Amino acid sequence: MHGLRFISRARDLGFSVEQMGDLLALWRDRSRASADVKSIALEHIRVLDEKAKALKAMSDTLRHLADNCHGDGRPDCPIIEGFAQAAPTSVKRRRPRFGVTDVAPDRSHA
Which residue, 23, 28, 46, 96, shows the most beta carbons closer than 10 Å to its own? Predict the structure, then answer.
């Protein structure tokens, strides 16, 4: 029962099946090093932060397009026009995973 609760909580926090397996093995290992657990958590935080940044950029772009659309009977629509334009070169597209488009951050300045 405790294992299911552990897995449920890890899943709620967005860990992958592989990561949950690693965390579950560490949870069961009483001689584990907490540094191993922390390493998995910190890497997951990094990935979540990247996804949050990408989602924020998508939201900002769509909000800008919607704010500039009159939303009336006219055929001119900045949203449609914005979709027809090429994406900024700083955005690299990846295949959708789990129904969410994953956008790689621009690392040219790093």
Answer: 23
Q: What is the DSSP letter of 104?
A: E
SS3 of residue 77 by DSSP: coil
Query: Which of 75, 25, 78, 82 has its CA nearest to residue 58?
Result: 82
- As given in the structure block, the two tokens for residue 2 are 């405790």
Domain ranges in the chain are 14-104
The model's pLDDT over 94-107, given as tens digits with 9 standing for 90+, comes to 555 544 444 454 44
Task: Assess whether pLDDT exceeds 60 at residue 110.
Answer: no
| Stated pTM of the model | 0.66
Q: Do 40 and 19 meet the contact criterion of CB atoms below 8 Å apart?
A: yes
Provide the 10 A C-beta neighbour count for residue 40: 16
